[in-house]
Amino acid sequence: MKEAQITQFVSDYLDGLRSLKIAEESIARFRESIKVVHTKSKKTLINSGDICKHMFLIMQGGFVCRYVLEKTGAAKTIN
Predict the structure, then answer these.
(1) 5 Cβ partners below 8 Å, 6+ apart?
(2) Contacts of residue 23, Cβ cutoff 8 Å, sequence gap at least 6
(3) How far apart are the first and last CA of the chain?
(4) Half-sphere exposure of residue 34, counting CA atoms within 13 Å on the CB side?
(5) pLDDT (tens place) for every residue of the chain, 79 residues total
(6) Whole-structure pTM value
(7) Distances, alpha carbon 77 to alpha carbons 11, 34, 63, 73, in Å
(8) What DSSP character marks residue 5?
(9) Residue pair 64/79 in contact by the 8 Å Cβ criterion
(10) How high is the pLDDT of residue 26?
(11) CA 44 – CA 67 distance, rounded (Å)
(12) CA of residue 77 relative to chain centroid, distance
């Protein structure tokens, strides 16, 4: 995606948050904290056991989420 497309996408996304009655202050903080990152395929965004302090918005492609159920230890995958 080109930078202009990314900027428009983010703007539309934030407008969508307004339609959900999200506080303008929250939207402003979100806008200030946005960092566009281009990653390669199969990049690990969060490692097991890490505390996530970021939000990821996948704009192109897809992702796989793998996690372990604490009670049973069973591994699960979401595509």
Answers:
(1) none
(2) none
(3) 22
(4) 16
(5) 788 888 898 899 999 999 999 999 999 988 888 888 888 888 888 887 888 887 787 877 888 888 888 899 898 888 7
(6) 0.55
(7) 31, 27, 10, 13
(8) H
(9) yes
(10) 93
(11) 13
(12) 17
Residues in Cβ contact with 27 at an 8 Å cutoff, skipping those fewer than 6 apart: 14, 17, 18
Q: Tokens 């202009």: give the residue.
A: 4
Going by C-beta distance under 8 Å and a sequence separation of 6 or more, which residues neighbour residue 50? Answer: none
DSSP state of 67: E
CB atoms within 10 A of CB 9: 15
Residue 64: the pLDDT is 85
Residue 77 has phi, psi (to 5 degrees) of -135, 135
Whole-number Å distance between alpha carbons of 38 and 68: 27
Q: Which two tokens stand for residue 9?
A: 């996408």
